[in-house]
Every structure is written in structure tokens, then in C-alpha cells.
């Protein structure tokens, strides 16, 4: 998930198929809208959980809410960005709205709290809330398994202590394979800010991962 080498940024555009589905969806074709959004579901839910914007049991609900909001706002989509990044902007906005609501009602908050006060701690999440990077890669009973598990644990704890704004950039870049431009448009921040946050987060991870020998 968090390799150190830089990937090539994909070209930011809507495919001809997406443009066709968008045109149909804007005419009220719900099947076309579903075909546009369904491929985003898995990645979007993983992003919500890993970035701390939603819990595992809440991610699907946030995604569904974002779908409804996107459908109602579809006529305002002008194609100046990809549909994916436009949708992620809506997704993150909806997740932040839910987080604010849950902060006002701490008894149902899925965020880390300070004792019994119910107060959220600096927007950070408990390491236990972050999904392991790639549990399918573990080799049961081997030294490699122990090394990978320790690596995963340390990365999870490091991520949990980062501000959400940096976590989001890291998750979108490495896990969701967004380009700098896509991240900038999805989070509505300058590309320079994306690069700065990615650099800072990557440095923390590089320092951590340098303590581990390479995977066999």
C-alpha cells in the first residue's frame, strides 16, 4: 500500500463511456448513474475508513448519502474534473458533516474519545480503526508473517497519529491511486499543498519503514 517510489500520474479526464453515462444520467437514467458510481464504492469506503472519516459500519451509509447528494447535484457537474474526483469531493464533505454531527452527539461517535468526556482528540483516530494494509499477503506460521504484521501495526499507528488532512492525501495517493491533480480537485486544495502533505506524510513513513528489512 505505502511503497516509497513515485508513480506516474494518470491523465485527468472522463472516458467516452463515462461521458455517455453522464449524459444519460443527467436525463434521469438511474441505471446509467448506478453504472457510474458502483465502481467507486469499494475504493470510496476503504478511503473513508482508512482516513478516519467513517467507521467500518458507517462507511456504506456515508457512501449512500453521497450518492443521493451527487444525484441531486448532477446537473451542476460541468466536466471540468473527472466524475470520480467530483464525487469524492461530495463524499468527503458528507463524511465531515456526519463527523460534526457525531461530535455533537458523542455517545454515537466512532472517533477516539478522551476517557468518558466524549471529546474527540485532535481529529485523530484510534489505530484499531484502520484496516490492515494487505492481510492476504501474510504467510501463516512464517517469519515473514510476523515481520509483515509488525510492519502493518507500526504503519497503522503512525497513520492514526497524523492529522486527517495528511492521512487523506496518503490514502488517496497510495491506496486509491489518485494523481496529484485528482487529489487537489477532490480535496479542493492547491497541488502544491497536496505535494507538501504527501511529502511530510511519506517522510514519516519512510523513517518508520527503514527499520524493517525488505520483504522476501
Helical residue percent band: 55-70%
What is the mean pLDDT? 76
Tell me how many strands there are.
0
DSSP strand (E) fraction?
under 5%
Q: For the report, how would you describe the main beta sheet?
A: none
Unreliable spans: 1-11, 106-141
Could you outline the blueprint of secondary structure elements for this entry?
Layout: H1 16-26, H2 30-37, H3 41-50, H4 59-73, H5 83-104, H6 143-160, H7 164-175, H8 180-187, H9 191-209
Helix pairs in contact: 1-2, 3-4, 3-7, 4-5, 5-8, 6-9, 7-9, 8-9
Describe this structure in words.
The chain is mostly helical and 216 residues long. 57% of the residues lie in helices and 0% in strands. It has helices at 16-26, 30-37, 41-50, 59-73, 83-104, 143-160, 164-175, 180-187, 191-209. The longest helix has 22 residues, at 83-104. The radius of gyration is 18 Å and the shape is globular. The relative contact order is 0.14.
Labels describing this entry:
216 residues, mainly alpha, disordered N terminus, 9 helices
Amino acid at each position: 500500500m505505502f511503497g516509497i517510489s513515485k508513480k506516474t500520474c494518470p491523465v485527468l479526464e472522463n472516458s467516452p463511456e463515462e461521458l455517455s453515462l453522464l449524459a444519460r444520467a443527467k436525463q434521469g437514467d438511474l441505471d446509467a448513474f448506478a453504472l457510474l458510481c458502483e465502481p467507486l464504492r469499494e475504493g470510496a469506503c476503504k478511503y473513508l475508513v482508512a482516513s478516519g472519516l467513517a467507521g467500518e459500519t458507517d462507511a456504506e451509509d456515508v457512501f449512500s448519502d453521497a450518492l443521493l447528494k451527487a444525484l441531486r447535484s448532477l446537473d451542476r457537474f460541468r466536466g471540468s474534473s473527472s466524475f470520480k474526483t467530483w464525487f469524492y469531493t461530495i463524499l468527503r464533505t458528507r463524511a465531515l458533516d456526519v463527523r460534526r454531527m457525531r461530535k455533537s452527539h458523542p455517545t454515537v461517535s466512532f472517533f477516539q474519545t478522551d476517557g468518558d468526556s466524549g471529546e474527540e482528540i485532535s481529529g485523530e483516530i484510534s489505530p484499531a480503526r484502520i484496516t490492515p494494509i494487505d492481510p492476504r499477503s501474510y504467510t501463516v506460521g512464517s517469519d515473514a508473517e510476523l515481520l509483515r504484521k509488525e510492519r502493518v501495526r507500526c504503519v497503522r499507528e503512525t497513520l492514526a497519529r497524523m492529522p486527517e488532512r495528511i492521512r487523506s492525501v496518503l490514502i488517496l495517493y497510495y491506496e486509491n491511486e489518485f494523481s496529484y491533480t485528482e487529489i487537489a480537485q477532490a480535496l479542493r486544495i492547491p497541488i502544491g499543498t497536496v505535494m507538501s502533505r504527501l511529502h511530510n506524510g511519506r517522510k514519516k513513513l519512510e523513517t518508520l519503514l527503514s527499520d524493517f528489512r525488505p520483504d522476501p
